[in-house]
């Protein structure tokens, strides 16, 4: 079973349901408990502030509740906060480290709690959003470019309105495609403020807004700091009072098999065991080994998070125990919904405006992509807007952009997407190639290819050819590609937040079968590329799995079987280097050029990307002959190398 993820984009559940899912305590509930005391205190503060303001006082008062220390628990004793340090870290890590500026769910809640009670800011925000539709209607792309190029000189109401609605980060980025940047856009609210007569008529200027906003930010930061201090203090007290943690006896373990503890108790034990493991010399029980603690931890984490033993073992091999918890926690939270602008049909700025007009709350994904948007919430189904129907965007996970960014297909090239359905990457390739050249979109599954064809039509792709071969046969069907993408079938351990069944539905045989297939496919992908391509000669291998067996081990196998390729830089700006050794096994040093992406560090699906350059179409065989490999070990002998 395990904990279930809750999509930030979902309609919020009623509180009672939200707190208990599958009868288990969720992290959300823990967060709520943690912040309950703070919320109560803030309400008191707010009331005090209002009283002080009514009495003519201007100064921000230090909250009395805080001066008195944290709110006492019901039994009058200080209690440890419900959320562990590892969880706090996980929460912080769930913020996109590399680029995105999304707030985590509970951060958003905190921000809401911090909102002043006077309603002023809310009123301003509401009136802004009411103006959305008018301000963007009729703004065609020419107007938009003119507005952008006049940089700050705009004095029309429409421009003022536009600036109020658009996220600042979009204002400075008018590219709409990966390779162009029209620049322009307003730089800051200060500039805008120079010509905001219309707003002054309403008694509110942008400068006012900005000042108020800064004051509120400062107040919020102060509050957050106080809350942090309180929590740390409470944790320290508990730390000091804590008794030595004892592992359950063998009998207790047996009893728990039939009558498991409730989730909050298991969660506490997980925290305790991690605390011991992280300070083993000091906190261990002399009679217990590290393995004893690890065994208990695995049992508890399997139960708490709902993984099978096999996958739990595999994942624990990847991370330290603390980081493993961060990974598991991140898998309980849905990744942000992201869309890719289809630059064959729209520019990102225009698309963003159209969606904002529909009340969609969005932002660019990050600096690394000029076509991605994160959708925070939407009053309309994001997969059913007129813009979606018109093919202006694809709903696509941010991590799924990465293999295509790395592949970097060029105009007029011949590109193979070896396992293409449902077509997120095929259609991105076509867009980067501006519908020129040829994209062969292959997938072994005819069933899945229906969605591929539908997406190709919807997005207006006209340079794609769809086929249904087993990728392992491909070199015998067609070859000479400038670039090949192999987004391989995999176990999906990077996308557990989307598909929790991955936690339990794979065992050792599945991994064996998958890795064999991946190894055969990667050789076919390499053999399908023309090393003499004037513009390319590249292969990108990607998976949405984080296991080394499916990632580095497959790439290392390819390097050993195909000495006519080498790994090159993925050209991706972030991501962790791949492993060059793992559990006593060494991989080729160049594996450090591959990139790993994790939900808990990058707030995107777990992904792996490796990029090869093919150096020659032939390889030298052991018997000194040169062969042109054609995938899966089928070789055509070439003439013997002349004796030296
Ligand atoms: C990770 S998905 C591909 C996702 C796709 N690249 C995208 O971005 O939308 C892997 C795909 O591999 C296909 N597949 C599985 N075995 C295959 C094989 N032997 N040859 C080609 N495709 C295969 C599956 O049908 C599945 O659609």
Write the CATH architecture name of the domain at 400-640.
3-Layer(aba) Sandwich
Poorly predicted parts: 1-40, 56-204, 633-639
CATH topology of the domain at 400-640, what is it called?
Rossmann fold
Taking the sheet with the most strands, its summary is: 9 strands, mixed
Taking all Cα atoms into account, the compactness measure Rg is 28 Å
The outline comes out as globular
Distance between the ends: 66 Å
**What structural category arises from helix and sheet content?**
alpha+beta
Overall pLDDT level: 74
Number of DSSP E strands: 20
* Share in β-strands: 5-15%
CATH superfamily of the domain at 400-640: Vaccinia Virus protein VP39
What is the class of the domain at 400-640 in the CATH system?
Alpha Beta
State the helical fraction: 40-55%
* Contiguous helical run count: 28
Biased composition (Basic and acidic residues): 17-44
Biased composition (Acidic residues): 127-146, 188-203
Subcellular location: Nucleus, Nucleolus
Region (Disordered): 1-205
